[in-house]
Each structure stands twice: as C-alpha cells, then as structure tokens.
Design a protein that fits this description.
B: two-stranded antiparallel ribbon, 2 strands, 3% strand
Chain lengths: 112, 228
C-alpha cells in the first residue's frame, strides 16, 4: 500500500534531523540549566531527596554527561553528547532493525 | 523526571520492571506489524533526537529545570509502540552510559516516560486530534497539547509509584500536589518543543509522519508473513 511513498525515504529530512540533534547535543547542551529537575526539586521540598542512592555506575567514563579526564566543561559535555547521540542512534537503529516488518521479500520472515 | 535508585522500594521497582517488560513485548509485536524497513532510520533518529533534546534542561521556575520527555513527539512521528521503544532506548542509554536514572529504577522510568508518556500521551493526542480541523495544523496543535498533558501524567505515575512503594515517610498527597504542579510548568516546554518539532517535519515531509499517514490505518489485506 505504501510502496508509492516509501520510495522517497526522506534522506534530506534525516540528514537535517541528525545535524540538528548533533548540534543540540554537542553545542547547545553546554548552556542547559543545571538547576535540579522537577522530580529532584520536589524530592528536596517534600523531604525525600535523602532517600536517593548513588548510581551504580556513577564512576563510569561518561557519568553525568561529561567525559572523565577532560577538564574543559564545554568539550566534556559536547563529546558526551556526541557519544550519546551516536550510541542512541546505533542502539535504536539496531534494535528496530531486528523488530522491523518483514514483508519486502528481501529477508526471510521469522518463524514466529 | 528520571528516578534515581532509592526513592522507590525494591518490590515496587521489580513490579514496574515487569510492567515495562510487558510494554516492550507488546511494543515489539506491534512494531513488527507496522515498521517498514525504510522507516527504521527515521525511528532511530527520533530516539537520537530525543536523547539530544533531553540534555537541554530549561529553567521553569525558581530553582527548577525541566527537559523534554519526548514520548508524544516520538509517538506522533513514528507511532505509539515504536515511539515507546525509542523512549525506552533513550532511558537505557542514559542509565547505562550516563548514570542518569537508577538502574533499579529503569522499569519505573520506562513505565512513566515510555508507557505513560508515549503510549498514554498518544491516546490523548488521538482524542484531541478528533476535536480539531483535519489538517496539518490540527495535528501540530494536538501534538503540542497532548505533549503538555503527558508531563503531569508522567508525574502522576511517579506519585502512584511513590504512594505504593516510596522509601521515605512522606505523605503522598503532598508529593502529588508538588509533582503535578511543577510538571504542569515543565509540560509547557514539552508542548512547545513537541509542536515545533512535529511542525518542522510536517512542513517538509508530512508523508513520513505516522499520525498523518497511519494513525488509523484502514483494514489492509496482507497475506500472513511467509518466507518468499
């Protein structure tokens, strides 16, 4: 049914979207507000913030959206953002590729 | 909105993880029915875009910030179930790579932002969509309003989880008021960003937007999957 439109795969839109995502994560993220988010603020106001525990991976190289070992904040958050966009794109793409519809004849359908 | 470890007790977290897994099971089955090969890159980009925008905390009131949750944005662009997978992927990447959102709370966060935010938000979108003119502006406005509402909805879901299994001895009624009140403000940002992003895609390639193309697909006769 959708064969007429699916030929137009939207490559331009995809490239522009990727560019915007990378620009936001790499360049704009430095200017993000560092105030507590809504949940954290409420937890503080209502008195349950202390029940939060440290993250199991708090010492990981990209913890809290920075690259460990890079002192320049702007570079650190920018590189973390780039890594995040790349990993999310790859993980999301890989996962969705595995669960995509199989009716184009080019692949063998799963024996469900 | 990302719940850290410790806020909610283990039993409730495990229960939420079960709900989250069930949600992903349904999402995978539904995605398998609708997501064509050529739509995979756009859906993956939707996830990456949400990751990027979630880094951009905007100030909402004195001493508070918020960021996009992205559930309605994803659901409108790529469909509610594929969108739910997109949001869950973002949450998993944030938890595993960036220490954002507790690992024991991943199920809770998927319930709040993927199930409630994307799937629940999409139901609200569909309801609002029917009240508006049948054109692209109607789709854009419905997406914005649904996105706005999805944030206090997710905040209410957190409150429910807190009422069931909050570790701190705090009256959940107070938490409900504070959570929903704060997140109504954050929701305004969610609505504006979602309307802008959906509007941008609608302006260039409306044919690629799920909510325009396939929100209510007509019955389609397709032979059951067979190897060809």
């Amino acid at each position: 049914m959708a064969t007429a439109t699916s030929v137009r795969s939207g490559r331009t839109l995809w490239l522009v979207g990727l560019l915007v995502a990378v620009a936001l994560a790499v360049l704009v993220s430095f200017y993000a507000s560092s105030q507590p988010d809504g949940l954290e603020k409420v937890a503080g106001d209502e008195g349950f913030l202390a029940s939060a525990e440290d993250h199991d991976l708090a010492d990981s190289p990209l913890a809290d959206y920075g690259v460990r070992g890079i002192d320049d904040d702007r570079l650190s958050v920018g590189l973390a953002g780039l890594a995040g966009v790349a990993v999310t794109l790859a993980a999301g793409g890989g996962l969705l590729w595995l669960v995509r519809r199989r009716d184009d004849g080019s692949t063998t359908a799963d024996p469900v | 909105m990302h719940i850290p470890d410790g806020f909610i007790n283990a039993g409730t977290s495990v229960g939420a993880a079960g709900v989250a897994l069930g949600t992903m099971g349904v999402a995978v089955r539904r995605t398998r029915d609708v997501l064509g090969e050529r739509q995979v890159p756009l859906a993956a980009l939707t996830a990456a875009f949400i990751f990027a925008v979630q880094m951009l905390n905007f100030p909402v009131a004195s001493g508070t910030s918020g960021h996009l949750l992205g559930g309605v944005l994803a659901a409108v662009l790529v469909g509610p179930w594929t969108g739910a997978i997109c949001v869950a992927v973002v949450l998993a990447v944030q938890g595993l790579l960036f220490a954002d959102g507790g690992l024991s709370a991943l199920g809770l966060n998927v319930v709040n932002m993927s199930l409630v935010g994307a799937v629940g938000g999409y139901l609200v979108f569909r309801a609002i969509r029917r009240l508006l003119p049948d054109n692209l502006v109607g789709t854009e406005v419905a997406a914005g309003v649904a996105a706005f509402l999805s944030v206090p909805m997710a905040a209410a879901a957190f409150t429910l989880e807190f009422a069931i299994g909050g570790n701190a001895d705090v009256a959940w009624g107070d938490v409900a008021l504070a959570m929903v009140g704060t997140h109504v403000l954050i929701g305004i940002g969610e609505g504006v960003i979602t309307a802008m992003a959906v509007g941008a895609v609608l302006a260039s390639r409306p044919d690629l937007v799920h909510a325009v193309d396939g929100a209510a697909p007509p019955l389609e006769i397709r032979p059951h999957e067979v190897a060809r």
